[in-house]
Design brief:
Blueprint lengths: L4 H10 L4 H7 L4 H8 L7 H11 L16
Helix pairs in contact: 2-3
């Protein structure tokens, strides 16, 4: 899965979460989350699931992959 950094940042900001708070909630370093949002690195599926759960959105909302029903 390829993260959509802009979507993650947008949902994070809508939730009122700082980058540091999101990183803490998923037990990751803030720099790691920052690089995901800047699309300088990818993320494991498990990490994207954690981010989606915290942001209360489907994983498909924060990735560049099309949902399976749209393939």
């Amino acid at each position: 899965m390829t993260p959509n950094g802009a979507a993650i940042r947008s949902f994070r900001e809508k939730c009122g979460l700082s980058l540091r708070r999101l990183a803490h909630l998923i037990d990751r370093d803030p720099g790691f989350v920052s690089r995901i949002e800047a699309e300088q690195r990818g993320a494991a599926e498990n990490t994207l699931r954690q981010i989606a759960a915290v942001l209360q959105v489907p994983v498909a909302a924060i990735t560049r992959e099309k949902p399976r029903d749209q393939e």
